[in-house]
Backbone:
């Protein structure tokens, strides 16, 4: 109901309550039923009068307030002896306004400088891309220089090995240094076939000259070509072996197929037996002869023969034993002779050459990977020049040095890994394009 | 009862350790472990039975001695690697956070050990540990020098930083300077791989190989991490060795290095070598390269005249003064003839025998000459070798770099020019244009009073320790073969450098003489019964030569002679006459006798050998026979080569 009412009369306009259609004269403005709207307007007027405005149009600050004081009843609900926090936290929370004295020595924070003022830059902490790349490398374990190489400023061999003060100050027990084990002094394992140590730089023969004597060169050429021919022969042999292997496997596969086919066939053949075409093998079986009773004479004969056989066997055994006993002496002599011969051989080998050969390597390799092959160090006859200017150097010294390290057993052979193995990625198609609804 | 032994507690299982175990024990990464092993000289070992060592089912491949690895735990460098690992972690953490500046700060601080208080790690202590005495270090210098010279000649890549190359080069040049001053270089050899050098330092022979310039390709199948680790170690080693060598001859180390000169290709000339005590020693032993005026200085001339006068008047006390004068005049250090005295490092050390100075002093070989290197010759090795053998003045074309005595080819003081160009023939056609002719003339221009040789001359002179005749090595001449000076010639082997008389055996010489005599006789006979097919004669002679070679046939002919003699004696007896002596002159007879005696001796020796062989065991005898067989084959070849040469020489002398 409206609060304010006109003094008298019905303020409402003329009304037509039923309005089934809006067509025709009845749909005229004056005939429209506006009672609902009138009612709403009245309500709004009332609201404005009572509350001073429409609530929906008001700011939330006008409607609500923040409760700062809190609810006093909550404190009463909990008992007083429960503390609010840890003591440690309480202590920590009491911070001094003065910053603490730094305990750790931080790098680059010392007050001493070299007197050169740092370059003022707009972005002092900026790190350029190149630097970043380098940092990433360092983080990956690739340091540019792991140790400092300083110019020698003293003679390392000038001081005696033992500490001279050791005898002087006996009242102080000197800290004992760790002693290097004897095994440290052992030579590395040479990979030469004869086990001799290989020199770091092998003395060159005459054939290695840039302008060699004919005989030397010829010898070397023959040697190298024989090696090449041998390598080629081996390669061809391997190829042939591979081919034969493949052929054999193909043949066996074919045979297996054929056998299978035959097995399939035999099923049909079994059927054929039903037709009465089978072989007549079963009809050929003969009757077994029944054993006859032995006579006494036969028994005696058998006995005698058995006795003789036993004796002969025993005699043979005895003879063999005697022979073996005789051979013992001989064998021991042989062994001694062999031993002596081996030692002699060893001595002779020692005399022959005191160096290992880089070309003749032992079969058992060190480590998992094979040694890299030696480069062919030979100038071919048509390229042989007697002028130093026209010389085409052969072989790679870099490889040569590397191989020398391996052959001398200083390091083990490694496989070349040009880059790290990447994580395997599997590429799949997304199937979401199928997820649609018509 | 004996204690029960458990498997894997004693023996090989205890003595060896696999690589994985070692890495775990040291708490390192595998690359760091490799580095440490290389520096400390710990090598992979091979147990007698691999199965007894490792307990794991998978086959381990690399083993080390457990004691070695245990000893590595005491290594201060280990801490370095751990620090590095910490730094890596810090940086990667910072990068992961995206805090790049923090990562940069960590890295920067690690590079400044003086700020962080952490020590800077060097390999200095390892050097003494691995080479207790200086001689030990010298013995391992072969490998060291070869590696450093190789790296000094590499192009710089990401794997081989330019800094490392520059340092290698510097160390190598310093070492070369020592050899120049001490005249320690002995031999050098031009091979197809590179140039071999051999030097003798304190009685130790050191051989190393230097690549030719601009020849090294970087190959994929080489582990540069490992090579770089070796090079780091060897750089430290050579630095200390250089220090010791320099101080041992009273020089200051490091020598002054002129970066500017080096940038301009000064190489050896970029160093200025000084005595230790500059105040007393006025002679700065720099590579002065004859900075003294190379005209005739009037003052010098006066001095020389004075000396000559003195020489004439009083020969006794001149020597001393003369030396003084020459030292003053040259302003250069006079060659250090004194040989280093080898005092043992520690009391009770080995005392090396003092080498006796040879008649040919290597310091004097080229000392009188002034060389000029044409621009096509390899300057670096030539300069080094010439200087090491006493040459003071070397000039070269300005293309070859800084530091030359003169770049002017027409300088009159030049005595030798090294040329490696073929002689260019001028166009011989009638209508050949004059321009071409002119250029060829210009290229072939020769200055009078100067010796032109090819580079090989220098090497051959050095190896034979004497000046070879330059005609053989003239430009355009086909060179004599370049022989390896390192090959030890065995007894009786054919050596093309020696004259025949020096290498042939007695028997051979006698044979040759006899053959000569015979020939002479034949010729006389020929002269007697004039012109009977002299054309056939040569071929016959050749046949005879062949016969000489084969010993068996020789023996056969000997027998024939004997039977003939006997027959003659018999005939004489029957006839009742005196034995007719074969008409031979005394000279030939004595030779024949000598030959017979030789043969008899050889036979006796062979018999002795046969008897001795009978005493040997079967196996040893076989081996001995094999050896003898190969030796005989080789010596037969040598004999053949010598006979060939004899024939050639004879023909030459005839012609």
Residues:
């Amino acid at each position: 109901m409206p609060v304010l009412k006109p003094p008298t009369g019905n303020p409402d306009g003329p009304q037509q309550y039923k309005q089934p259609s809006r067509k025709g004269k009845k749909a005229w403005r004056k005939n429209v039923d506006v009672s609902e709207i009138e009612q709403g307007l009245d309500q709004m007027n009332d609201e404005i009068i009572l509350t001073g405005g429409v609530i929906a149009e008001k700011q939330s600050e006008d409607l609500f307030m923040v409760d700062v004081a809190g609810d006093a009843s909550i404190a009463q609900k909990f008992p007083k002896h429960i503390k609010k926090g840890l003591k440690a936290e309480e202590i920590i929370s009491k911070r001094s306004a003065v910053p603490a004295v730094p305990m750790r020595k931080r790098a680059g924070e010392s007050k001493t400088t070299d007197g050169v003022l740092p370059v003022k830059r707009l972005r002092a902490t900026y790190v350029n891309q190149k630097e970043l790349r380098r940092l990433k490398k360092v983080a990956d374990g690739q340091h540019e220089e792991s140790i400092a190489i300083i110019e020698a400023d003293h003679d390392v061999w000038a001081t005696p090995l033992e500490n001279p003060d050791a005898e002087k100050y006996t009242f102080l027990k000197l800290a004992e240094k760790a002693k290097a084990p004897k095994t440290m002094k052992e030579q590395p394992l040479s990979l030469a076939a004869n086990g001799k140590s290989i020199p770091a730089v092998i003395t060159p023969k005459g054939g290695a000259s840039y302008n060699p004597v004919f005989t030397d060169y010829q010898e070397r050429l023959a040697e190298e070509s024989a090696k090449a021919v041998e390598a080629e022969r081996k390669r061809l042999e391997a190829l042939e072996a591979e081919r034969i292997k493949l052929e054999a496997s193909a043949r066996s596969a074919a045979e297996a197929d054929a056998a299978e086919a035959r097995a399939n066939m035999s099923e049909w053949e079994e059927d054929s037996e039903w037709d009465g075409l089978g072989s007549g093998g079963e009809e050929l079986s003969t009757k077994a002869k029944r054993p006859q009773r032995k006579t006494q004479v036969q028994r005696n004969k058998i006995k005698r023969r058995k006795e003789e056989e036993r004796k002969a066997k025993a005699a043979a055994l005895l003879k063999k034993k005697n022979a073996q006993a005789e051979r013992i002496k001989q064998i021991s002599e042989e062994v001694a002779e062999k031993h002596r011969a081996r030692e002699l051989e060893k001595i002779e080998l020692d005399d022959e050459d005191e160096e290992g050969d880089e070309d003749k390597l032992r079969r058992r390799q060190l480590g998992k990977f094979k040694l890299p092959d030696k480069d062919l160090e030979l100038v071919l006859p048509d390229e042989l020049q007697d002028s130093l200017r026209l010389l085409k150097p052969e072989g790679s010294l870099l490889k040569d040095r590397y191989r020398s390290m391996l052959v001398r057993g200083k390091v083990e052979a490694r496989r070349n890994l040009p880059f790290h193995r990447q994580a395997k990625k599997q590429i799949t198609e997304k199937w979401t394009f199928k997820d649609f609804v018509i | 009862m004996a204690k029960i032994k458990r498997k894997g507690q004693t023996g090989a299982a205890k003595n060896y350790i696999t690589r994985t175990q070692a890495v775990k024990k040291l708490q390192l990464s595998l690359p760091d472990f490799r580095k440490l092993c290389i520096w400390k000289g710990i090598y992979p070992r091979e147990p007698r039975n691999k199965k007894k060592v490792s307990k794991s089912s998978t086959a381990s491949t690399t083993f080390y001695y457990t004691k070695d690895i245990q000893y590595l735990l005491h290594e201060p460098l280990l801490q370095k690697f751990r620090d590095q690992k910490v730094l890596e972690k810090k940086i990667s953490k910072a990068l992961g956070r995206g805090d790049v500046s923090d990562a940069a700060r960590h890295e920067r601080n690690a590079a400044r050990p003086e700020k962080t208080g952490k020590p800077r790690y060097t390999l200095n202590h390892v050097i003494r540990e691995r080479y207790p005495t200086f001689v030990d270090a010298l013995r391992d210098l072969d490998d060291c020098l070869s590696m450093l010279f190789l790296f000094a000649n590499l192009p710089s890549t990401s794997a081989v930083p330019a800094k490392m190359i520059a340092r290698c080069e510097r160390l190598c040049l310093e070492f070369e300077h020592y050899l120049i001053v001490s005249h320690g270089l002995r031999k050098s050899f031009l091979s197809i791989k590179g140039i071999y050098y051999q030097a003798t330092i304190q009685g130790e022979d050191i051989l190393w190989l230097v690549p030719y310039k601009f020849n090294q390709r970087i190959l994929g199948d080489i582990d540069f991490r490992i090579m770089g680790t070796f090079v780091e170690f060897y750089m430290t080693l050579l630095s200390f060795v250089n220090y010791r060598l320099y101080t041992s001859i009273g020089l200051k180390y490091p020598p002054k290095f002129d970066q500017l000169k080096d940038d301009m290709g000064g190489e050896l000339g970029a160093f200025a070598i000084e005595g230790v005590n500059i105040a007393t020693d006025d002679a700065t032993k720099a590579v002065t390269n004859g900075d003294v005026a190379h005209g005739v200085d009037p003052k010098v001339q006066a001095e020389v005249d004075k000396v000559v006068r003195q020489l004439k008047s009083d020969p006794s006390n001149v020597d001393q003064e003369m030396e003084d004068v020459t030292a003053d005049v040259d302003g250069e250090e006079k060659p250090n003839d004194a040989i280093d005295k080898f005092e043992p490092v520690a009391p009770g050390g080995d005392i090396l025998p003092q080498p006796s100075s040879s008649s040919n002093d290597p310091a004097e070989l080229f000392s009188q000459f002034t060389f000029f290197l044409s621009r096509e010759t390899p300057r670096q090795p030539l300069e080094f070798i010439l200087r090491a053998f006493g040459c003071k003045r070397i000039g070269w074309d300005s293309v070859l770099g800084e530091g030359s005595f003169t770049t002017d080819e027409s300088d009159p003081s030049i005595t030798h020019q090294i040329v490696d160009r073929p002689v260019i023939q001028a166009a011989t056609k009638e209508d050949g244009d004059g321009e071409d002719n002119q250029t060829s003339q210009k290229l072939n221009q020769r200055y009078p009073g100067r010796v032109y040789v090819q580079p090989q001359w220098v090497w051959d002179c050095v190896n034979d320790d004497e000046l070879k005749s330059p005609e053989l090595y003239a430009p355009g001449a086909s060179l004599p073969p370049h022989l390896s000076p390192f090959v030890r010639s065995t007894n009786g082997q054919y050596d093309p450098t020696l004259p025949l008389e020096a290498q042939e055996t007695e028997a051979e010489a006698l044979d040759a003489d006899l053959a000569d005599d015979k020939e002479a006789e034949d010729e006389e006979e020929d002269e007697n019964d004039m012109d009977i097919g002299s054309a056939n004669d040569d071929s016959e002679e050749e046949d005879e030569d062949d016969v000489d070679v084969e010993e068996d046939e020789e023996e056969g002919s000997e027998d024939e002679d004997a039977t003939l003699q006997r027959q003659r004696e018999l005939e004489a007896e029957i006839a009742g006459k005196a034995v007719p002596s074969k008409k031979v002159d005394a000279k030939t007879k004595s030779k024949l006798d000598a030959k017979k005696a030789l043969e008899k001796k050889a036979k006796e020796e062979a018999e002795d050998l046969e008897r001795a062989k009978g005493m040997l065991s079967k196996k040893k005898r076989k081996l001995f026979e094999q050896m003898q067989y190969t030796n005989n084959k080789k010596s037969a070849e040598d004999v053949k080569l010598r006979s060939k040469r004899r024939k050639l020489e004879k023909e030459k002398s005839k012609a």
